Amino acid sequence: MFRVNAFCDAEMGNLYREKGKVVGMKERKTIALFTEGDNALLEGIMTEAILQAGAKYDYNILIFQSLMTKPTYAEGTLSNSLVTGESSIYKLPDYDMFDGLIILGELLRSDAMREIVECARKHNLPVIDVNNECEGCYNVVFDDVAGMKEMVQHIIREHGCRKINFVSGFEGNKESLEREAAYREALEAEGIPFEPERILYGEFYLKSVDAVRDYLQMHELPDAFVCANDAMAMFVTKFLEDEGHRVPEDVIVTGFDHLAEAEEYRPSITSVERSVYEAGEVAVELLRERWSGKILSKKTQVPAHLVLHQSCGCLKRPPVDVFDLNRVKSQEITQRDIFISHISEMWRDFVMVEDMETLLKVVCQHLEFFEWDRIYLCICDDIFGRGIDDEHRYLGYSPSMVMVKYHRGREPEFENVYYPNILPPLHLDGEEREHLIFIPMYMKERMIGYLWMPLDHYMQQFSMLYAFLTTVNSAISDFCLLREKASLVDKLDSMYVRDALTKLYNRFGMQRYVEKVLAVARRDGQKVMCIALDLDGLKPINDNYGHAAGDNAIVQVANALRQASERREVCCRSGGDEYLVFGIAEHDTDAQAFIQRVEDYLDHYNQMNNWPYRVACSCGQCIRPADQIHSLEDLVTEADKMLYEVKVRKKTLRE
User: Fold this and answer.
1) Rg (CA), the chain
2) CB-CB contact of 57 with 128 (8 Å)
3) pLDDT in tens, 351-378
4) How confident is the prediction for the chain on average, in pLDDT?
5) How many Cβ atoms from other residues are within 10 Å of residue 405's Cβ?
6) Per-residue confidence (pLDDT) for residue 217, from 0 to 100
7) Which residues make Cβ contacts (< 8 Å) with residue 282, sequence separation at least 6?
8) 646 to 40, 619, 635, 651: CA distances (angstroms)
9) What is the C-alpha to C-alpha distance for residues 111 and 450, in angstroms, rounded to an integer?
10) Reduced to 3 states, what is the DSSP secondary structure of residue 364?
């Protein structure tokens, strides 16, 4: 089979295939970006850099992003069902459409990353792994150590600090260890002894306040708290000022990451900025070099740099414009409240729908809120029926999908797509480049489908998109569960009214459905027939040939009854080898005609199978006008009486 060669000369282009066939020259390069989580600081900035580079070189950028957040300090804290649901988006694409991959290895779980890299290897595609050193990839890494070391040396040299505490993240975490090491290197370089008790663990968030409080209960205020991220720096600053300590006059506080929130904080936080945007640009440039045939280094470092602000004293704290601050916050709160109200309205509308197509139309109606030009939902088609059919899924998706196309101001369109092409038709060599994102829709390990949309929409309002998508997932899942519950109730009811061996009605089913036959016959002034049947010679069959043969004989009589039923007669297994049939009789000969069809079926079965035993039955029947039937038992008693007479005659003939 033809395989893409991702390392061929760029000027020659490369061929791509569809359904195993070469279909033409691939002019425009396509880069796939695999990431997870909603970390605007890292993946948001890097995605923007990759998009800008893609626009510069006219590349397609396709992003496959789960909403799962990798545990910061250890793997295994997420449920397997959640991981399965989120990771299924990485199994969606056909890798033959790509020319190269970029993965944010710092965010991806290692098991998902290994699968992606293995797929890329099979398709001979170069992979750039950002801030993670994975085998089989070209690695772009942040030099966090140099940035943190520069920070510590700055407060020592420029501000005269000697007693410096380090507020780390999680104990043993990779980023924590690297930044702790940089702190210790800076102390050593400046001739300051390292004191282990000055290492505090704030777990990258609010725990930092507890760590600082506990330290200050036993020790004097240090010259500085160097924090491993900006969030902890802001928490520590607020705590210190609430305790009456001025920052930076009494104590310096610094952070790491250079968050926008930290820059807007008062005092603004002196921090270290990772070169995230630069890393995205470098990743694209490395792919370009690899496509041109250049041999790449396995590891490329991008340096972090110091950003000086007020919390170390390098910048003066300006007066706070309370009016402007309140105006911005008020706008944010208003937008949030409007969105929450919109989500509530959408949920109320979901409650009213009775089928999946209507539910998806409601989803599209509420997409108008975002004012996006287009967005697509690709939904597993089994959801439109009884619910999720796990048995016939492949890689979590159904063999056929229903693609719901939403274009603003137009009615949604529904189109079927089929495996293996369960991705929508992508015009990768059209007049305009494609910048798209694909996000999973699921409930635990059960896939609903996926969403895809242009990246310009995604970058604008991704946090609200996640909330919107969570609501849609929940609504569809609830709808599926109701369908599956109804199906389960039907199955349980069938088990209650049907015989397990023959699947004919049992006595409970007979009682339920024969009453309906009687009601119709009485209403229309018709007659009702009752046929009683016994399997002949069940005991000799069991004794001579085993119970499997006996069960087969019982089932064949049941099959004969089903075959003979032409007017939806109610057929029942009333005992071990006993059967009853009820139906409306238009003619006095209908019961005998039914019996003849049963006997013909069994005669044919015996001739075709040539078993050492014969399957046969004895039958008794009666027909009465419905208005003369006082009880079902009377009808059965009369048919049984006729059956007994038939069995006596057969016995007399055998003797």
Assistant:
1) 37
2) no
3) 788 788 888 888 888 887 777 788 888 8
4) 83
5) 17
6) 95
7) 140, 300, 302
8) 85, 7, 17, 9
9) 21
10) helix
Structure tokens at 617: 């039955």
Contact 232, 202 (CB under 8 A): yes
CB-based contacts of 15, cutoff 8 Å, min separation 6: 2, 4, 22, 24, 25, 26
- 409-439 pLDDT, tens digit each: 888 888 887 755 667 777 888 888 888 888 8
| Sign of the alpha-carbon torsion through 46, 137, 69, 442 | positive
Question: What is residue 450's three-state secondary structure?
Answer: strand
In sequence order, the 6+-apart residues with CB closer than 8 A to the CB of 250 are 221, 240
Report which residue type is found at 75. E
- Alpha helices for 292-376 (secondary structure H): 322-352, 356-366
Give the total residue count for the chain.
655
Q: What is the pLDDT of residues 521-562, one digit of tens each?
A: 999 999 999 999 999 999 999 999 999 999 999 999 999 999
The DSSP code sequence of 57-86 is HT-EEEEEEE-----SS-SS-S-HHHHHHH
Can you give the pLDDT at residue 26? 55
SS3 613: coil
- Do 518 and 528 contact (CB within 8 A), yes or no? yes
Per the listing, tokens 């719901």 go with: 404
Residues 6+ apart with CB under 8 A from 19: 420, 421
